[in-house]
């Protein structure tokens, strides 16, 4: 049974009104009894009231005052009332009334966005809005509702006439129970994630990240990677490769602002603190027209508002960082503050976990007899000494400034800083020794903030105005000196340097409006304007300018979409997004369509298709320090293309009694893909024309996904399999022939399982993937630049681009967590082991310049290709308290 605020509390009203204008009556009630009353002037104009109020509560007072008028009211809380006109279709049927409600957390009072409401009499799902609000135009005493939300117990509600004119406060209980003073999971099926009615859309419970085995930090993105179609074998990147797209083709939103860089620690976990996340929605493809600017997928995250009922918080520590959160109610009207902060202490103390992660940057590699390069490298010894830390924080303030208006401010900041020194010694054919010293600093971070004002005009209209700002900046500086000692030619010294700066600044204003026409029809529309400032500069070797660009652009977009139920079994959502980009001075049309067909109570068929455009591209510079050298650059359709894509998705799903089985087909066609010439962190290009910095190509991804999920109360498990192919075609690469993309993987199999026993939580994941492609090379050419200025350019000659495959990838991760009472709060201690059976997986191949070209001795650069190994068995210990 939900908790309902009937407003029959301590307020007792005694007033006499005779021929009194209604506006004056409302002011009297407001001033004398400290009520909050919202009304529109024209609704109450020319209405006189004759009423005797004797010892009545708020609800009965307004019932009597408005009796005989064409007005009604909605009791939002004990002292808050909204005056509105009666709907004509309800006047004639006295037994039928309009129901309004808000779904919230019973413990914290925080509203639950996008909760599902199943109307049994209509066999129809209704989704609450971002503030947990929903309305049903016509209900009666026979109507039954089932309200559900991930991670909460379902609530069955039978409508009563007592709910008339009252806004229900439906408070859902989290699906844990208090047993022997310790919080443990209930017998209810574990709502870890939910496949939504729209094809390709998933909603995930952020709390699942606390159960999933992790590398140091709890991570919602690592958990997403266990879903079908989301690549999980890219261990050194928490970025999401979804249905053949790359991570830079995903739109990642946090409280409405765009996050351009989503990882910490060079990709080993995401930069989103799970403590700060209230809800997360993933669109793998075919997403709605209200989203735009990316050509693959969408991750839409809503941050926590904070506890409305009491001050609460947490403090945790693991082998990498300290993590804390605080939630404070600021006032009686629902104003709240939420704060979370996380900082690693890796610059103070190097734990075993920290050293294991950084071990991939150190290697001692023996001679490769099969390498077809000038001579053979006998041995390489290198040592990397890092000084590194990362931080992130979230701050959010929310308040309800009036019965109809809600205001929230959200702030996010994430930073990673690495200072490093690297020394290496190379012996070449016993005749040459090269000693190299490197000194570098890498910084990257993302700042985002948003101010959101929303208004519930009435039960049919809802609007939101969002002002957002996002800034991503990365810098990379490296200095290297090499000393070559030759048995025949003596000594030779050289030095190189690299400087890279990249930033993207994004200021956006967005207006959205929802119109619920009736219980089976809904229209959504909105406009957005974004202003971008973008800088990219890369210099190498004595200020030789490789690339330099500073660009500004404005983007204007409009969308409209409708959701329509033709009958209880079939619904469809057509939409159109229109965009105008200032740098190209072109208009881009993006039609979208999705549908749902409920075959019966257990089976449903759903599909989606659409066109998509991306106006800012990220080029991936393949470097062993993954995550630091990628850069964003605005499209202009000259040197940098606008990306285009078409999506097609079709899915069949069975869901009954905790059993879920689904099979899905996807296909994505990409145009305007971008390749960057200097992919190995130096003046070595893969293009025949060394003056060419970017190249444009096309791509296709396609595949089949299978998923089986079963909940047994305390035991939950799912298994997913993806069969896919991703191929690219660039006219100036691989002699114009198609080749497999770097992230192509034919087979991937993921298993997840969790079990709760008393105060213990056990979980395990197993990931398998067939080998990803890589390129072998047969030499390097050196040539002078076309203008005869600057140093020589090296060009790698590949036998076939991505023509070989790395070894297959697999690993098993396990974790155990024990919860116990600690003072007035609770605590936990957890142990996780990554790569339990110590599988030696390979991340990638690295092309290195062992010795630069020596024109004096007519020697080409000496290069080597080596495998970059990933982490072996790695334990992590964590402890936390909650109050």
TrEMBL record:
<dbReference type="InterPro" id="IPR008969">
    <property type="entry name" value="CarboxyPept-like_regulatory"/>
</dbReference>
<feature type="domain" description="Protein FecR C-terminal">
    <location>
        <begin position="17"/>
        <end position="83"/>
    </location>
</feature>
<keyword id="KW-0998">Cell outer membrane</keyword>
<dbReference type="Pfam" id="PF07715">
    <property type="entry name" value="Plug"/>
</dbReference>
<dbReference type="Pfam" id="PF16344">
    <property type="entry name" value="FecR_C"/>
</dbReference>
<protein>
    <recommendedName>
        <fullName>TonB-dependent receptor plug domain-containing protein</fullName>
    </recommendedName>
</protein>
<dbReference type="GO" id="GO:0009279">
    <property type="term" value="C:cell outer membrane"/>
</dbReference>
<dbReference type="Pfam" id="PF13715">
    <property type="entry name" value="CarbopepD_reg_2"/>
</dbReference>
<feature type="domain" description="TonB-dependent receptor plug">
    <location>
        <begin position="218"/>
        <end position="294"/>
    </location>
</feature>
<dbReference type="InterPro" id="IPR036942">
    <property type="entry name" value="Beta-barrel_TonB_sf"/>
</dbReference>
<keyword id="KW-0472">Membrane</keyword>
<dbReference type="InterPro" id="IPR012910">
    <property type="entry name" value="Plug_dom"/>
</dbReference>
<dbReference type="InterPro" id="IPR037066">
    <property type="entry name" value="Plug_dom_sf"/>
</dbReference>
<dbReference type="InterPro" id="IPR032508">
    <property type="entry name" value="FecR_C"/>
</dbReference>
């Amino acid at each position: 049974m939900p908790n309902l605020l009937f407003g029959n509390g301590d307020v007792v009203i005694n007033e006499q009104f005779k021929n009194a204008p209604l506006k004056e009556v409302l002011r009297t009630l407001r001033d004398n009894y400290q009520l909050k009353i919202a009304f529109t002037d024209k609704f109450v104009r020319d209405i006189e009231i004759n009423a005797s109020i004797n010892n009545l509560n708020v609800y009965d007072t307004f019932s009597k005052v408005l009796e005989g008028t064409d007005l009604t009211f909605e009791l939002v809380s004990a002292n808050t009332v909204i005056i509105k006109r009666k709907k004509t279709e309800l006047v004639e049927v006295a037994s039928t009334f309009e129901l309004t409600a808000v779904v919230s957390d019973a413990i914290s009072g925080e509203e639950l966005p996008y909760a599902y409401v199943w109307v049994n009499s209509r066999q129809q799902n209704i989704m609450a809005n971002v503030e947990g609000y929903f309305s049903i135009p016509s209900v009666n005493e026979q109507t039954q509702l089932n309200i559900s939300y991930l991670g909460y117990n379902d609530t069955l509600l039978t409508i009563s006439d007592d709910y008339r004119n009252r806004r229900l406060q439906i408070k859902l209980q989290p699906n844990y129970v208090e047993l022997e003073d310790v919080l443990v999971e209930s017998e209810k099926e574990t709502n870890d994630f939910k496949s939504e009615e729209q094809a390709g859309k998933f909603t995930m419970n952020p709390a699942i990240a606390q159960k999933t085995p992790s590398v140091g930090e709890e991570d919602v993105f690592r958990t997403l990677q266990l879903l079908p179609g989301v690549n999980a074998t890219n261990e050194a990147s928490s970025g999401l490769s979804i249905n053949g797209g790359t991570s830079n083709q995903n739109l990642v939103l946090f409280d409405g602002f765009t996050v351009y860089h989503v990882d910490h620690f060079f990709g080993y976990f995401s930069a989103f603190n799970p403590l700060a996340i209230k809800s997360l929605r993933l669109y793998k493809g075919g997403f709605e027209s209200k989203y735009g600017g990316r050509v693959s997928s969408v991750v839409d995250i809503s941050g926590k508002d904070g506890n409305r009922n009491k001050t609460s918080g947490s403090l945790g520590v693991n082998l990498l960082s300290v993590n804390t959160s605080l939630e404070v109610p600021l006032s009686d009207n629902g104003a709240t503050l939420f704060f979370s902060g996380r900082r690693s202490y890796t610059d103070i103390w190097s734990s075993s976990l920290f050293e294991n992660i950084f071990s991939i940057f150190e290697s001692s590699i023996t001679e490769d007899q099969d390498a077809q390069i000038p001579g053979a490298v006998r041995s390489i010894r290198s040592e990397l000494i890092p000084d590194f830390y990362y931080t992130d924080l979230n701050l959010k303030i929310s308040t309800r400034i009036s019965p109809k208006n809600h205001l929230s401010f959200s702030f996010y900041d994430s930073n990673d800083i690495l200072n490093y020194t690297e020394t290496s010694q190379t012996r070449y054919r016993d005749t040459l020794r090269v000693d190299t010293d490197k000194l570098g600093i890498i910084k990257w971070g993302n700042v985002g903030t948003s101010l959101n004002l929303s208004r519930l005009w009435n039960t049919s209209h809802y609007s939101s105005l969002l002002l957002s700002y996002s800034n991503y900046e990365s810098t990379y500086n490296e200095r290297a000196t090499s000393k070559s000692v030759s048995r025949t030619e003596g000594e030779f010294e050289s030095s190189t340097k690299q400087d890279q700066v990249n930033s993207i600044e994004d200021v956006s204003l967005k207006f959205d409006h929802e119109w619920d026409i009736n219980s089976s029809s809904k229209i959504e529309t909105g406009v957005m304007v974004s202003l971008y400032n973008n800088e990219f500069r890369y210099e190498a070797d004595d200020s030789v300018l490789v690339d330099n660009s500073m660009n500004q652009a404005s983007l204007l977009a409009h969308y409209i979409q409708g959701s329509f139920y033709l009958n209880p079994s079939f619904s469809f959502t057509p939409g159109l997004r229109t965009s105008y980009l200032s740098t190209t001075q072109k208009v881009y049309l993006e039609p979208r369509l999705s549908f749902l067909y409920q075959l019966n109570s257990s089976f449903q068929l759903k599909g989606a298709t659409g066109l998509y455009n991306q106006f800012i591209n990220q080029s991936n510079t393949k470097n062993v320090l993954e995550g630091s050298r990628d850069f964003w650059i605005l499209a202009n359709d000259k040197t940098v293309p606008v990306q285009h894509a078409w999506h097609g998705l079709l899915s069949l799903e069975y869901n009954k009694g905790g059993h879920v089985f689904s099979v899905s087909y996807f296909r994505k066609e990409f145009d305007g893909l971008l390749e960057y010439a200097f992919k190995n962190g130096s003046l070595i290009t893969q293009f025949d024309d060394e003056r060419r910095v970017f190249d444009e190509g096309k791509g296709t991804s396609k595949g089949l996904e299978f998923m089986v999920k079963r909940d047994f109360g305390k035991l939950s498990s799912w298994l997913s399999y993806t069969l896919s192919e991703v191929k690219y075609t660039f006219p100036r690469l691989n002699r114009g022939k198609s080749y497999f993309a770097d992230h192509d993987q034919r087979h991937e199999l993921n298993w997840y399982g969790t079990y709760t026993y008393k105060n213990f939580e056990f979980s395990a994941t197993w990931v398998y993937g067939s080998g990803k492609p890589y390129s072998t090379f047969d030499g390097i050419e050196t040539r002078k630049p076309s203008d005869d200025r600057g140093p020589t350019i090296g060009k790698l000659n590949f036998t076939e681009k991505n023509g070989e495959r790395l070894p297959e990838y697999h690993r098993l991760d396990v974790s155990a967590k024990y919860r116990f009472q600690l003072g007035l709060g609770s605590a936990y201690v957890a142990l996780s082991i990554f790569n339990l059976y110590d599988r030696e997986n390979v991340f990638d191949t690295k092309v290195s310049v062992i010795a630069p070209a020596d024109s004096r001795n007519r020697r080409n650069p000496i290069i080597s290709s080596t495998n970059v190994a990933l982490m072996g068995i790695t334990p992590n210990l964590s402890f936390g308290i909650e109050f």
